[in-house]
Design brief:
The structure is a single chain. With 215 residues, the chain is mainly beta. It has one helix and twelve strands. The longest helix has 20 residues. The chain is globular.
Amino acid sequence: MKPSSILLFLVIMIGTLVLISCTDKSNPSTPDTNSNGDLRPLAVGNYWVYRESDNNAQITQYDSIVITTTVTIQGASYFQEETFIHAPDSVHWWHSPFKHYLTVRDDGYYQFDSSNMMPKKFLPSQPSAGYHEVIIDTTGGQFLTDTIDCRSISDNSTVPAGTFTNCTHIRNGYSSGSVYDTWYKPGVGEVRFLYSLPSAPQYNYSKALLRYRVN
């Protein structure tokens, strides 16, 4: 790891520990919410820590997702997300080399897709139950169709960080056959996540929110 990467890692992890000890929100009875009500709060300094489990409900790792900075891509501003991974049997955090670049527009949230060099919508701004949208990708002569469905806006979700009421349940379906079910609490972000691949269920996994900090 380069010295600059080590320094960034230490700064983020020390900051995360301070925030967890002082201001993180993980009270199971009264989880706080951000008054702005964003389904995916985007601000530098926001972080979420998740427990990941495999198809047999065995804990496989812990993920700490941190918004570290903003960057400009193709003239547009994006929030940069970085992930730190901690295995249950390890005392070290591993800095994932993969970064995500997110932005929000009037109609929803987008992630910059480096494979086709364009932003791709994954979440509507204020969906209602029954919302359905088809995203068509024709980059490089291919024809792929992804779907976004709002299954509910009133689900309750109990995770280690607490019980969150009135969560929005979004299902993203992809041409590969994989399905992502995500429960968003307005003002908090993702509180629960399920990945499923019907053709290979052994690769299914889930994530549950442990603690978070949103500005």
